[in-house]
Design goal:
Maf protein; 217 residues; single chain
């Protein structure tokens, strides 16, 4: 059990602006330390195993690079998200042609979005989980695809799209955690934090304000 007077140092092992935004909803201050872990090291695994191993690799890499936490308790959070269509991993498109091919392949179909989260504690404990959501894409037009690609938004996102994009709005249906598809499933993270005896500062009202209450359907 964490003493109420113990200082907790949160570290987010990710450069993702979406993950920074979502972690901020939990009310804990944190710093960002980007992991240099090879995100392609586990591509030979299935999609769920791939994201879990990658998230763990990110967290453990950052843990090994940081100096001792001293009297504070350090908690490193890493996450990884991938899109899988018929079991095949779709990473981040490197070109407009790749983005176009992904969006055409996904159009009007169901696919899986796997998001792993891993917490590494300076006390030597680790907690992790994988959330899988089933996403149904709408039948967007060729013109919409071209406009979306021209915006530049697809290129840092697995599968080449963002569920939360206000103009493209590619998703017609979702079974799972909306925030997991964004990149950090609070549905899974909050229970993991509680297992590690981390005080819960989650404010549901902040989530409703930021994302219209669309947390889990």
């Amino acid at each position: 059990m964490t003493d109420s007077k113990t200082t907790i140092q949160f570290v987010l092992a990710s450069a993702s602006p979406r993950r920074r935004e979502l972690l901020a909803l939990l009310g804990h201050p944190f710093e960002v330390v980007v992991s240099g872990a090879d995100e392609d090291a586990h591509l030979d695994a299935g999609p769920a195993a791939y994201v879990l191993r990658t998230a763990r690799h990110k967290a453990e890499t950052v843990a090994g690079e940081l100096p001792p936490a001293g009297d504070a308790r350090r908690l490193i959070l890493a996450a990884d998200t991938t899109v899988a269509l018929d079991g095949t991993i779709l990473g981040k498109p490197a070109s407009p042609a790749e983005a176009r091919a992904m969006l055409v392949a996904l159009r009007g179909r169901d696919h899986d979005v796997h998001t792993a989260v891993c917490l590494v504690d300076s006390d030597g404990r680790e907690e992790s989980s994988v959330h899988t959501a089933v996403v149904t894409m709408r039948d967007y037009s060729e013109a919409e695809i071209e406009t979306y690609i021209a915006s530049g938004d697809p290129f840092d996102k697995a599968g080449g799209y963002a569920i939360q994009h206000p103009a493209f709005r590619p998703v017609a249906g979702l079974r799972g955690c909306y925030l997991g598809v964004m990149g950090l499933s609070l549905c899974d993270l909050i229970p993991l934090l509680r297992r590690l005896d981390v005080p819960d500062r989650f404010d549901p009202a902040a989530l409703v304000d930021a994302h219209g209450g669309y947390l889990h359907r």
